[in-house]
Amino acid sequence: MERHARTLRAWQLAILRFAVTLDDADRLAVLMIGAEIDGLGPKQNIKPEFSFFRKTSAELCAAILRPDKLNAMVLRQYLARIDDRHLKRVFAAAVEMDQPKTSVVSKSVKHDNDLWRGLSSRSARAR
């Protein structure tokens, strides 16, 4: 299981690297890692070969290279799948995409006029 997690992390970092460099060698690295992840599952002759990561890798690389409305949706979906908030923030910056704002719950400020009740004023102490 740890190997799968490391390989998935390597795939995410490879996608980030490609988003930054746009280099063909980095794109090929993304595709190779995606193919490796697809090959990690159990082999069964009954079902067709698993290809989620290969397909997703190709879609993401194309979306990074050709930003438009449809490709922005692909990038947003990928961004939503990233669990690591630091990686999510860096990837969003690399593809020049705004992250959804997290709502911050703020407490209303209570002005308590009774806070100083019972204390003598400064002018009374100065005498």
Account of the 3D structure:
This protein has 127 residues and is mainly alpha-helical. It has one domain (2-94). 60% of the residues lie in helices and 0% in strands. The chain contains six helices and no strands. It has helices spanning 2-21, 24-38, 52-65, 69-81, 85-94, 122-125. α3 (52-65) packs across α4 (69-81). The longest helix is centred in the first third of the chain and has 20 residues, at 2-21. The termini are far apart. The mean pLDDT is 82.
Offer a quick outline of the entry.
With 127 residues, this protein is mainly α.
Order of helices and strands: HHHHHH
**Form type:** elongated
Q: State which percent range the strand residues make up.
A: under 5%
Instruction: Describe the main β-sheet briefly.
Output: none
Question: What's the total number of strands?
Answer: 0
Q: Which class of secondary structure composition applies to the elements?
A: mainly alpha
What is the helix fraction of residues, given as a range? 55-70%
| Cα radius of gyration in angstroms | 26 Å
The overall pLDDT average reads 82
The total domain count is: 1
Low-confidence stretches: none
- The DSSP helix count reads 6
Terminus-to-terminus distance: 76 Å
